[in-house]
Amino acid sequence: MAFAFLWLGGSGIDRAAMNARRLPGGAAAAAAERWRVDSLDKVKGATQFGIDVRLRGMKVATVKACPAFGGKLAAVDNKKTRAVPGVVDVIRISNAVAVGAS
Amino acid sequence: MFVVRVNGKERSVDVPGDMPLLWVLRDVVGLTGTKFGCGVAQCGACTVHLDGQPVRSCVMPVSAIGNKAITTIEAVGQTFSGQKIQQAWLAVDVVQCGYCQSGQIMSAAALLARAPNPTDADIDAAMSGNICRCGTYVRIRAAIKQAATGNAEILQTIAPAGAP
């Protein structure tokens, strides 16, 4: 059973209407039940991916991991980084450094 | 303070001049359809149009834009070629995860505006800078051709017997 079949079961979405936006035709009609359900939003850039989530007061961090596998963080001099406008914290991780900013 | 023209609207943005257009669009203007992929113009996910030309917004400083018109995935459907491309994308069902597809569609729409009947070589040249981890390249090519000609492209599909 396709995921779309399960997903549409409780969604109240009219599958016939959704498929009507596709091109008509034999092969297309036969395949209509298999079309992915979220293509329309994705094609319009409307789908919300993880990176698109915005929460109130949310900060963003970037992480730089040790370039060598198994390496450990030795030391961090965070003075210059902390002086950059918007930087909230420099976070030490066992094998990486994260910089959080607003 | 910069004034940028995004999808036909002027927006004043109070940002440093070296801020890439991508983050102006996503974090300041609030248009998140344009995606961050690599940050170094190697993947194409952040592609937008400047006066109709495809550019990688992750390496485009906002100070370099001037009065050029910015078009993003949210409004490319209002252009003739953008609408054709989006319709073909749905008809062929190009998208899998979709993360790269804003950029793919922006590059394809710019190609179609410039070359209404693109050859395979034209498509290769225009689309080679847009990476897709799902590997939708075959359907991308088919959709561009379908958008150009209006004729349905034949694609092999794998359908399990008795699928609903």
Task: Tell me the β content of chain B.
Answer: 5-15%
The structural domain count of chain A equals 2
Largest sheet of chain B, if any? 5 strands, mixed
Percent of residues of chain A in helical segments? 25-40%
Rg calc of chain B: 16 Å
By CATH, the superfamily of the largest domain in chain B comes out as [2Fe-2S]-binding domain
Task: Describe the SSE topology.
The complex is a heterodimer of chains A (102) and B (164).
Chain A: H1 3-9, H2 15-20, H3 26-31, H4 39-44, E1 60-65, H5 79-82, E2 87-93, E3 96-101
Antiparallel strand pairs in A: 1-3, 2-3
Chain B: E1 2-6, E2 9-13, H1 21-29, E3 47-50, E4 53-56, E5 69-71, H2 80-92, H3 101-114, H4 120-127, H5 137-149
Helix pairs in contact in B: 2-3, 2-5, 3-4
Quick structural overview:
The complex is a heterodimer of chains A (102) and B (164). Chain A is of the alpha+beta class and 102 residues long.
What does this structure look like?
The complex is a heterodimer of chains A (102) and B (164). Chain A is of the alpha+beta class and 102 residues long. Chain A has two domains: 49 residues, no CATH class; 48 residues, no CATH class. Helix content of chain A is 28%, strand content 19%. Chain A is built from five helices and three strands, in the order ααααβαββ. Chain A has a three-stranded antiparallel sheet, with no helix packed on it. Chain A is elongated. In chain A, 6% of the residues are buried. The model of chain A has no long low-confidence stretch (mean pLDDT 79). The mean pLDDT of chain B is 95. Chain B has a five-stranded mixed sheet with strand order 2-1-5-3-4, with helices on both faces. Chain B folds into two domains: 70 residues, Beta-grasp domain (Ubiquitin-like (UB roll), Roll); 73 residues, DNA polymerase, domain 1, CATH 1.10.150. Chain B is of the alpha+beta class and 164 residues long. In chain B, helix 2 crosses helix 3 and helix 2 packs across helix 5. Helix content of chain B is 35%, strand content 13%.
